[in-house]
Queue: 3 jobs
Job 1
Amino acid sequence: MREPLTDELLEELRNSPDPAKFARDNKITQRSLPDYLQQLLDEKGLSRPKIVSEAGLNATYGYDIFTGKKHPSREKVLPLAFAMRCTLQETNRMLQAAGVNELYVKNRRDAIIIFCLEHGYGLMKTNEELFRFGEDPIDG
């Protein structure tokens, strides 16, 4: 299912007589991280244990993220995005659902992470790039 582009939604919101009607019509709700993670697993045909393992997370902690028992930091969400081979848009949606800052291209470390996402790098290669530029690695 294609999600409308942000610009399309913004234009529709500008033309809407009522923000509540706009939110209702477009099913605008606060997306929970567990729901979004499950959506990505389903769309990509992935398994939770494999993703948690590839992200380098403790199995129990990873399970608790997927069930909503734990509210991970940005540094714990990013490895999940790399393990799931997320696009930049998917990664930012995941970060937003977690209630943490999205990746920002004007931040040097974030720019490197964005580059790596866009070029299909895995977590290990991304951490190598971050190290090469003197930036902190992503903690799994």
Job 2
Amino acid sequence: MARPGKSRFVCRMPICGEFYPANTDLQTTIQIMLSVEEYETIRLIDYEGKNQQEAAAQMNVSRATIQTLYASARQKISRFLVEGTRLTIDGGSYELCGFPKQCAFERKGDSTMKIAVTYENGQVFQHFGHTEQFKVYTVEDGKIVSSEIVDTNGQGHGALAGFLFDGGISTLICGGIGGGARNALQEAGITLYPGASGDADAQVESFLQGKLQYDPETMCNHHSHEEGHSCGEHGCH
């Protein structure tokens, strides 16, 4: 199984991998191949009722990738239903989620996890690379059991991913964040929910209820800002 540069997480393999009309000669039936990650988008969006942003975050892909996979999957399933062809679910480029930190949204109520939020004066700080504090929440069985504010000691964005990893963080909620920091967090196995804002405690509670408002496409490049531009409530200066 080949893996892309950015792993597509799949949390459940299909129970049944092949479907075909009754009383049909399989040797003469056209076969439609549905990849495992295409199946996963159908499971998340149509079966579990997640929106495309939530599905994108859980699978560790962009919203555009989810849209492409989802549209392809639905087109293949419609052909299977209308044409009476054979449908096989197999192949693709994906990684099974073997640990809670790789599928935090799905497994957040199943075990202990630590969630970090970029933090300033009770709010979600809007520039990851300049955050001076994280608020870290310990969650058990989907409920916050403790929280603490930790200083970053002036570390830059390149070191913050390691700082979080060393602290046992599995999930990060933040405002704006740059591409380099995204890559570092991905390599550390930390699930990212960018584009959040408002009261930090409230955002974590919303996350645990599956209602967090965030934008997986949120980017913040300090060096390319035009004068007067800011990311969310805070400037990136």
Job 3
Amino acid sequence: MNRYTNLLSATAIVAASSASATDLEVMHWWTSGGEAAAVQQFADAFNATGNTWVDAAIAGGEAARAVMVSRLTGGDPMGAFQFNHGRQAEELIEAGLLRDITDIAEAEGWVDLVNPSTLLDACTVDGRIYCAPVNIHSWQWLWVSHKAFEDAGVAVPGNWAEFVAASDALAAADKIPLAMGQQGWQQSGAFNVMMASLLPSSVFTSVYGDKDTDVAGGADVATVFAAAASAREMAADSTVQNWNDATNLVIQGQAGGQIMGDWAQGEFAVAGSVAGEDYSCLPGLGTNPRLSTGGDAFYFPVLDDEAESAAQAELAALLLKPATQVSFNLAKGSLPVRGDIDLSAANDCMQKGLQLLADGALLPDVNMLATPDTVNQINTLFVEFFADTSISAEDAQARFVDIIKNAD
């Protein structure tokens, strides 16, 4: 038993004796194999307090968020729910539907522990804290199947340019060059990875942070739309819907690679694949290694039931405890939000992420800079772009500029 397990056990004993144990419904969208293994770490830790985690998983982030908001605004709140770091909960906070957990954050010392501090800033409205950040997820990864490239007789690429150059050889070997699910968030996510990885960081922040339409319509961003057109061609035979099904194509050696966030590591882990042997992971597409500081946070609706409110407080505190952070993030493939815990057991890919975090090679996540409405418009654009090859890169960029022009 290590010191983190000891700490978790002690916390559980104190918590269980401090309040009446109760059931707490927790809503989230973690339904893939790797995600389910990770969320079980939270459930097990919470159940150890004497309370009961009542799992209410809904597949798909967009569908889950719609149900969560409907429940909250309809007067049927759950005990806790997952959202991404960013601006998704602003209206719910303004409506007074979410619990202020500043007292818990202060008691647990989150201000001194959460790294980078922007994650806690994203939970803060008018100086009050409304959510518990639980991880750092970064989108900027290219996952590469060693088997696919070996079968195609070409070297495993070390960057995006080499990956694109090998696409014809992959296709000739009956491999899908680029695995991609047919959902807007995956396609716009790939585009944003290219924005962050193929250009200087200043371009990304000018477009999404400053809403600079001159930059959005300029030559630099035009090169990213050209790269997106190449990705569209390479992904033409990728007909799966879900991101984890696309990841499985890479795991099985049926596809050369996938642009996807570091949550893909959970799927490789469940499949028994070994980083550096069965697959490679290229942060920043191997071109400009950097990470966005997106991820997940838990919010807690205002409840009338005292026992459930007490259980909320126990869960909120538990989510950032060292043992919970270690077990959850090792399973999820994400990085911890605490800067003071030991992750020596992390695999090669997570170690790369930890080094980039330590080096400060970071970007804000799009969800922190843009409203859900703007994000949805961008998603819609890329659904149409990837489905319809008659939409040129130039036409797509013009529509993108209009979205940025009207973004708030």
